[in-house]
Each structure stands twice: as C-alpha cells, then as structure tokens.
Amino acid sequence: MDTTNTVADQPKVDRSQMKVSDEVAVRIENMNKWFGAFHVLRDIDLTVYKGERIVICGPSGSGKSTLIRCINALEEHQKGVIEVDGTRLSSDLKQIDKIRSEVGMCFQHFNLFPHLTILENCTLAPIWVRKTPKKEAEEDAMHFLTKVKIPDQANKYPGQLSGGQQQRVAIARSLCMRPKIMLFDEPTSALDPEMIKEVLDTMIELAEEGMTMLCVTHEMGFARQVANRVIFMDQGQIVEQNEPEEFFQNPKSDRTKLFLSQILGH
Amino acid sequence: MSDTHAQSVAYVRESFVEQQTPPVSETGVVKWLRENLFSSIPYAILTLLSLFVLYQILSGVLPWLLGGNWTASSIRECRELVEGAGGCFAVLTERWNQLLFGFSYPSTEYWRPALAFLLLFVCVAPVLFPDLPSKSLILTLLYPFVAYWLLWGGTIVTPIVGLLGVAAGYVAYRATINRGFALSLLAGVVAAVIVWYLGGFVAEELSGVAALMPVESRDMGGFMLNMILGTVCVSLSLPFGILLALGRQSRLPIIKIICITFIEFIRGVPLITLLFVANVVLAYFLPPGTTFDLILRVIIMITMFASAYIAEVIRGGLAALPRGQYEAADSLGLDYAQAMRLIILPQALKISIPGIVNVAVGLFKDTTLVSIISMFDVVGMIRGPILASTDWNGVYWELYGFAALLFFVTCYGISQYSQWLERKLATDHR
Fold this sequence. Notes:
Oligomer: heterodimer
CATH architecture of the largest domain in chain B: Orthogonal Bundle
Protein name (chain B): Inner membrane amino-acid ABC transporter permease protein YhdY
Keywords (chain B): Cell membrane, Membrane, Transmembrane, Transmembrane helix, Transport
Number of strands of chain B: 0
Number of helices of chain B: 17
GO biological process, one term (chain B): amino acid transport
Mean pLDDT of chain A: 88
Low-confidence stretches of chain A: 1-14
Number of domains of chain B: 4
Order of helices and strands of chain A: HEEEHEEHEHHHEHEHEEHH
CATH class of chain A: Alpha Beta
Low-confidence stretches of chain B: none
CATH class of the largest domain in chain B: Mainly Alpha
Membrane topology (chain B): Multi-pass membrane protein
Subcellular location (chain B): Cell inner membrane; Cell membrane
Largest sheet of chain B: none
C-alpha cells in the first residue's frame, strides 16, 4: 500500500533548479471510480506537492486520463477522497466551480472555442468567473499570449491556427486564470511531429517557473527533462512511481519493463 | 521550365515556377455556355427542352400579367375590358385595404398598423445585425409595447404599465439572483404580476390619457393579422424552444420528463387541432364570463407548437457540439448558465440556423390556418368577404396569386437573411 508513495516521502532531488515545496497541492486517498460496472480507477493514492511536475504514463485504457480528469471533477469519483489545495471535492456545484477556476486544464484536442477570437478565448473566463475588468483581462491575455509566442494571432479565430499554435493558446487560456495547478491530458498526441516541440518548450518553460503540473503524456524525453516523478499506471492502478532516472533505467515491475520496451524500443 | 539537372538521377529544384494565367480558351462566355448548357448531347437536348417549357409558361403568364386590368369596379366590368386574355387585378386595387387590414379595422386608423410595420424593421434591426451598437437594442425592447399601443389603441398607460411590470420583474430578478436561479425567476414573475395588477387600476383611471381609438381583436384582419401572429410567435417560440431543448438535456428527471412530454405531445398533434382547442374548447374550461382574447389564445397555441419544433432543432445543434466544448467551459470554472450562454448556445444556435429558419418560415405560412377558425387573415379575407361578394365572385388566380406573392416575398427575405447570417458567423474555417 505505502510502496506507491515512497518517492513522495523521500526528500526530493532538485532538478534543474526547480523547487518543490512540502505544501500539498493535491491529495488523493483511496480513490475509486467506476464507469457503470467497469472499475476504471482502483485504490488510487497520490500526493502532489506544490511545484511538482508529475508525468503519468501507461497503456491506453489504463485510467490515466480519467485520473487527472477526476482532479478537477470533470469525472465524478465514487469512493475515496480528493483534496485540491486543501479543499475536499464534493458534489457542491459552487465549490466545484471554485476548484476548477484554480486548476487549469489542457486537452488533447485543445477544445478552444471556435466562435471566439484567440483573445476572447483567453479573456472569457477571467471576465466572467473572476470579474476582471475587460481591459485588464485583455492586457493579461496579451501577456500570456506573448509568453507562448503568439501575440500576433490574437485577433484570429482558432480555426485559422495550426495545431501547435492552438495548443499553446489553450495553455495561455488556462494561465489567464492564474491557476495553482495545471493538468495536461495528452497535450501533444494530436499534433504533427514538427509542432510537438513548440508545445513541449512552452510546457518546459512553465515547469521552470515552478508551476505544479500533472501531465499525461507519452513524451518520455519531456519526462526525463522536467518531471520529478513518473507514474506508471495499468488497469486503473498506480503500478510504479519513481524519479525519472530510476524509472527509465531500473524499472521494478515487469509490466513497466514491458511498457518501456514497447515505447522506447524503436 | 526550371533548370533541373536532367542528366543526373539526383534531383534538386533550383527555381520555383511562378503562378501563370490560364489559357484564353478556358475563360469567357463561350466556355461557360459550352460547359454548363451544351456539354454533351443529352445536356443540349435538356437545355432546349427547358427553354421550350419556359417559353410556354411565359407566353401564357405574361399576357395575363401585362394585359391585366387594374381599374374596373367589378368582375363583369373587368371581363369586358380585358376580353379574356388579361387578369382582373382590379380586385387588388379595389380591396387593397381589406387584404392588408381586414374588413373591420377603422379606415381612419390605417396609418397605425402601417407605422407599426415600418417600425418593426427599425426595431428588429439591432437583433438581426450584430454590428449595430448594442445600445440600439433598447428600441427592440420598447417595440412590443409601442406596437401594441399602435395596433390596439386605447390609452398609452396600458403599454407603459406593461413595460414597468417587465422592468420591475427584471429588477427583482437581478436583486435575488444570488439566491439561486429558480427563486429569482419566481421573484421576478411575482414582482411583474403585482405591478401589472396594480397598474390595471391606474390604466382604467387614466383611460383618456394619450388615447388612440381602441380596436377590438376581432377587428384585426388581412395580412396584418398574419404579420402580428408571425412576428409574435416566432420571437416567443425561440426563447421557449431554447429552454425546452436545455430542459430536455437536464439532469433533473422532473424537468426532463416535463419537457419531453410537452415536446412529444405537441409534435404529435396537428396545429389545426390546437387552433380549434384555442377557439372553442378552451372556453369550456375557463370560468363563465371570462373574456380571454382570441388572438392571445391563438398566439399561445402557435407559440407552443413552434417552440416544440424549435426545441428539437436546437437539440440537434446541441448534440452536434463536441463534448470537449462542454468540458473546456467546465474546466475554466464557468457555471452552467455562463457555459450555456457564452459557449454552448452561440455555437449550437449557429448550427441550428437552417432548421430554425425552416420552422419560422413554416410557422409564418401556418398563420393562414387561422382562417379556418373564422379569423379573417389574408386568406380568410379572400375566402370569405371578397370571393363571396357579388362583385368579385370568381377571381381566384389574381387573389390567391397575390397572397402567394406576399408570403413568398416575406419568406424569401427571411431565408436570404439567414444565409447572410450563416456566412457572417462562419468563423470555424473548416
């Protein structure tokens, strides 16, 4: 039981000057979820500290996307506890909206709003959820669009941008809400190889600034470079978690070895 | 061509080919004719056949149209004047006012519906054209009350009370919005009803203030009646349709069941049945002596009918949206109302435009069904007072053709507008 948490309990290694505090950002305890009769997530225990960068990998259908979608209540869990930034997730809608406004999320298919311009995509939530004045929200949005290196596309519509640009806009849109935690659900899986790098660079930059990140991805290079913990999931369970070097060089479980040999083998 | 190294197998392009104009034989009228009308022998035969049919139709219709009489005072006089070939369009000029306003709207007051008609275009423009300044929406808001005053007459206090009631309802709604949507909606409705109730006494007291000659609902008729029913029912059925569509998706079983039952029941019943219910049956259920305006009853029935159809059209639009849009809206912390208003509905309604316009056009034409429950809309006027008169008994083509033209112009206008709107809203660049 406790073996899954060994890494988190050990003192953290400072990777490329990225700080990890001992304050808890997300605490998941004995969490279970079912889709109908199908037991997707089984006894998940996970503690994420502020400033941690966690990469979650595993075969498809292993429940990794469902896990991070539970953290901002896009999926409801049926058993166990999820605490985000000290607030326990319940079915109270107001509280869920509050937590969601603190947790940014990027999706595999970007999910930008096609009827709004890039700028409007970024300012919508600050204006309506945070009640930021429009002008201030626009300045803020331009700041983050500059950060993801597409300020000149601000007045275009999402459909006019490339996939990589759209994903960077999606990141900027989340950042405009000043989230405490960022969730990434396979952010590069729908992209052409040429565009993966620009999105990963943005994410690396974000990690260097100390953002708490949970990232479902198959980009093992990214995991090696920025993650301070890699989690391997299979059949709805956390099978192995470790620091990236150990994880890639010395996988403990057979299932992990098989998975790594398959994705790194070519 | 570019300078490639033709001798070697390895190939490197050193200069790129510039864009060039197409050959002359590929442009111009001759090419268009050859491609579109005479591209092959069967097509050529079809083209010639179509030209022949077109000629046949026009050779029949044009003399009738151009050689028609516009001044005669009865069908007999007209038939003598046109000698068989032309149409008796004199019926249109002689009965023009009846066709437009019905036969019992006071003739001194024709300027009122005419003015209301003109104002309709001014006041609906802010809704139709999103580029106009949003402050002009206030015109749209005021229009129903102005139009009511112009059409039905009476003191101006009545529509002012109506407006105040709406304002009071809105204020009460805003003041209590933090206590939850259902409660604040109730507060708004109660506030509005109180203002209307009290205002009713005031309006009675001040019945002479800025009063226009009152006109009864049963005196409304002609194309004016179709326009009243059409505009009111379309503008009411859209919000109701949206609510029904959202209700049908609701997670609360009671709301969902109510919406589904309503939609399925209304869709399963012919409109004409509902109109008969409005006309005859409803009176049995109301306490004796209550007067419940016939036009109001018909408006309620047609609105219910159209909103059930619009709800289904919008449900299609909602279903066509990817789940990711809902999730993205949720993940940003937008609440249900915000997500619907800012993200989901703008996109779903855009997808639904062709379907909504379809229902709106159908609804507008269905307003002629009221002629069956003895209301004298434009078709009712033609079927009843005009064709029954000894002067014009037998002038079918001209009258029904005119009615068809009126409806065609209106519906074609709606359709053209909707296509313009679709192009304007096309931002997804698919």
